[in-house]
């Protein structure tokens, strides 16, 4: 059709267009050729310049990074060669020598504090299966939470290396492992593990390399493990020994150089590398596509030059076509002639045919628009009905005019049915529209089956709303309750069959006129609230006498609330469940939606108050958003299941975590108190008062956390202090005994029992 209306103009302007495009091609082709040659030469020159620039940048980055890593490696070597570490493999009593273990721990803590990047230091003795950690103290190998890290580190096939350990990498740590002893034995007897916070080390790296969108910096350990990648943060710790680029670099004997490769998209990439004496490889990758992007201005100049000539050509073509022939003006002139003369002029058959084609084309467009409106009309009608039902449109005049325009029966007897899935809290928001669409289609099909008329639309959230009326004149518009009930039951069955969903149905009262349907909708929502205490049927009809049937008196089951909280505190889960079910039976008997919800709110508040009384922060409790979770449950059964399956386990986890943390802190405080007051007569009762615990509980807690009793620990600390004074000071035995809180006689007895010799013999042997 369009070809018929415009075909004559094409023949009359072809000559002019050919001349215009010939001039356009003669100018644009040379511009494109010259620009392309200049672009290629510029890319080659820039590539050579960037090679030199970024090799210097890589060397600077390598030097600064090696300084940081070497500091940690040298500190690990110093500690590994220390006399304490060497002696630990020669002491037969190392496993029970807590004082010696404490000295090693103190040395590791000092080194950790001196070097801020260090997160944790671990000493592992394979002979005794003992672990000394700056975070956890002395731990037996089988009791250590991160034992997989020890096993993985101890399997290292070289003396020392940086690695990402299984558990450590999950905590955001990178580790330097040094097997012990450093020299003298081919069989590893232990290991020193230095954990460094990956984020801290990455921040140190980022200070020294050029942060750019088109450069990639990588650090690869000699074992093939990637320590750092400025692009792929999630790829730290990957084994890249099989990476083609790394394999190619490993085979090169030179310590630095440039190789070529391709990225995942097949684009050429320059890889600049530099090796250290320990075969650690630093790689900088620069895509040639990125180099080309820096010269993109040349492309833009070529592009805009071509565009300018193209626009000039189009403008000239349009002016010529407009000047030579204008079909719109010819059509207007011919129309005026037909109106003025009231007949068709001779020789104007072509113009008449032209006008006929125009009118025929307009008629086709009008029919197409009409079909489109008929397709759109049901959706517009449903959207309008949904707004009226929810009370968003309340103006009576507007409702009447819209009903007339959309062919809606205004004065029928209407009732509103609301269908909503059970356990709606399990649905994701993106699933709402698809679920309501499927339910709406099922309801539309069933309306026809039960000879009912109406409109189905989506409500708020997962609600599907049906506005139903009976257009059977013999029934005077009244909806048969039995037929309506069969329709609701069949809806539940079909949704269960097709979508595997259980749904509940709320039915409002009948009202005359569309304007009253919002009241029926509110009644249907109230009918759905009956689910809280009525479980016999998924279909609930609004009852005007429901409020009158409520119990006149309701007593909140305070005794059951106290019983539930008490069982929770004692950890008796089965008794807690039974008490909760009794609580649910009592509040359900009130047959009041508001009373039931308020009762559960009060119970939840009591449980939260019980947690808070145990010293747990209210902010930590409330961030779980428990009240909103409770609100999303719509039936009594859903609420009881939420308390049992979600709240009670979470309660136990919060309390247990708080108790474990408090016990560990208390033991550390006692440990420090004993060391600071070694010359005093320190008692278990005094320390228990210090941390606010009973002596018996503190004694059990101290043994559980340290592995020895409180009395043995105090005695060991005093003996260690006496040893130190005997070695380093020229004090006599009486003065030393007074310094550690013993009499001379008691010191000699206790010292000989623990060390196997008298204080004098010990001094003579060690000085």
Automatic annotation (TrEMBL):
It comes from the Bacteria. The chain crosses the membrane at residues 20-39, 297-320. The keyword Membrane applies. The keyword Transmembrane helix applies. Residues 668-765 form the HTH araC/xylS-type domain. SMART domains: HTH_ARAC. Gene3D superfamilies: Homeodomain-like (1.10.10.60). Signal peptide: none annotated. Keywords: DNA-binding, Membrane, Transcription, Transcription regulation, Transmembrane, Transmembrane helix. PANTHER family: ARAC-FAMILY TRANSCRIPTIONAL REGULATOR, HTH-TYPE TRANSCRIPTIONAL REGULATOR EXSA. This is Helix-turn-helix domain-containing protein.
């Amino acid at each position: 059709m369009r070809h018929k209306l415009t075909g004559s103009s094409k023949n009359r302007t072809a000559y002019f267009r050919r001349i215009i495009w010939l001039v356009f091609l003669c100018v644009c082709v040379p511009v494109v050729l010259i620009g392309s040659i200049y672009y290629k030469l510029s890319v080659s020159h820039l590539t050579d310049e960037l090679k030199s620039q970024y090799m210097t940048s890589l060397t600077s980055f390598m030097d600064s990074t090696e300084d940081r890593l070497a500091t940690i490696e040298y500190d690990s070597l110093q500690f590994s060669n220390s006399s304490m570490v060497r002696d630990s493999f020669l002491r037969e009593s190392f496993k029970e020598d807590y004082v010696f273990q404490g000295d090693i721990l103190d040395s590791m803590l000092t080194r950790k504090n001196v070097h801020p990047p260090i997160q944790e230091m671990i000493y592992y003795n394979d002979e005794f299966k003992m672990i000394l950690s700056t975070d956890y103290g002395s731990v037996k190998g089988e009791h250590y939470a991160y034992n997989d890290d020890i096993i993985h580190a101890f399997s290292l096939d070289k003396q020392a290396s940086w690695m990402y350990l299984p558990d450590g990498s999950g905590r955001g740590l990178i580790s330097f492992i040094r097997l012990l002893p450093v020299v003298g034995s081919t069989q590893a007897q232990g290991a020193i593990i230095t954990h460094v916070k990956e984020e801290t080390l990455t921040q140190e790296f980022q200070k020294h390399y050029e942060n750019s969108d088109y450069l990639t910096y990588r650090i690869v350990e000699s074992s093939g493990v990637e320590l750092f990648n400025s692009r792929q943060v999630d790829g730290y710790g990957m084994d890249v020994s099989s990476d083609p680029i790394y394999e190619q670099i490993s085979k090169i004997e030179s310590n630095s150089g440039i190789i070529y490769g391709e990225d995942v998209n097949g684009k050429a990439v320059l890889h600049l590398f530099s090796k250290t004496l320990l075969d650690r490889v630093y790689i900088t990758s620069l895509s040639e596509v990125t180099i080309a992007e820096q010269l993109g201005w040349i492309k833009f100049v070529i592009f805009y030059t071509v565009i300018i000539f193209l626009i000039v050509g189009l403008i000239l073509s349009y002016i010529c076509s407009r000047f030579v022939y204008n079909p719109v003006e010819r059509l207007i002139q011919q129309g005026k002639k037909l109106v003025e003369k009231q007949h068709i002029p001779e020789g104007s058959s072509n113009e008449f045919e032209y006008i006929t084609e125009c009118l025929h084309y307009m008629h086709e467009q009008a029919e197409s628009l009409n079909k489109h409106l008929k397709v759109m009309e049901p959706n517009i009608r449903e959207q309008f009905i949904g707004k009226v039902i929810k009370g968003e449109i309340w103006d009576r005049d507007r409702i009447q005019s819209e009903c007339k325009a959309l062919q809606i029966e205004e004065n029928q007897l209407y009732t509103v049915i609301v269908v909503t899935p059970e356990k709606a809290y399990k649905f994701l928001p993106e699933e709402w529209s698809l679920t309501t669409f499927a339910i709406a289609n099922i309801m539309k099909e069933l309306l026809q089956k039960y000879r009912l008329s109406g409109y189905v639309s989506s409500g708020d959230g997962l609600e599907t709303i049906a506005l139903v009326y009976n257009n059977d004149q013999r029934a005077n518009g009244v909806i048969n309750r039995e037929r309506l009930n069969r329709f609701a039951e069949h809806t539940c069955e079909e949704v269960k069959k097709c979508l595997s969903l259980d749904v509940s149905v709320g039915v409002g009262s009948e009202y005359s006129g569309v304007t009253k349907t919002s009241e029926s909708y509110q009644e249907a929502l109230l009918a759905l609230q009956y689910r809280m205490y009525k479980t016999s049927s998924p279909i609930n009809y609004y009852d005007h006498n429901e409020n009158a049937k409520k119990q006149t008196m309701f007593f909140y089951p305070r005794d059951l609330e106290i019983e539930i909280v008490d069982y929770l505190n004692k950890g008796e889960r089965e008794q807690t469940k039974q008490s909760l079910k009794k609580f649910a039976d009592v509040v359900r008997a009130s047959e009041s939606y508001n009373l039931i919800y308020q009762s559960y709110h009060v119970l939840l508040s009591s449980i939260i108050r019980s947690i808070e009384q145990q010293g747990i922060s209210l902010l930590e409790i409330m961030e779980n958003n428990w009240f909103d979770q409770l609100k999303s449950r719509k039936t009594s059964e859903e609420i009881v299941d939420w308390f049992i399956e979600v709240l009670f386990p979470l309660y136990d986890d919060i309390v247990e975590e708080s108790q474990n943390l408090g016990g560990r802190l208390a033991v550390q405080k006692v440990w420090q108190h004993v060391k600071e007051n070694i010359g005093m007569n320190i008692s278990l009762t005094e320390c228990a008062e210090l941390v606010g615990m009973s002596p018996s509980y503190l004694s059990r807690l101290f043994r559980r956390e340290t592995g020895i009793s409180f009395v043995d620990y105090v005695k060991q600390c005093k003996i260690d202090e006496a040893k130190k004074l005997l070695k380093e000071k020229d004090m006599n035995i009486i003065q030393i005994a007074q310094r550690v809180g013993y009499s001379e006689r008691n010191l000699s007895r206790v010292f000989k029992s623990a060390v196997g010799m008298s204080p004098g013999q010990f001094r003579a042997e060690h000085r």
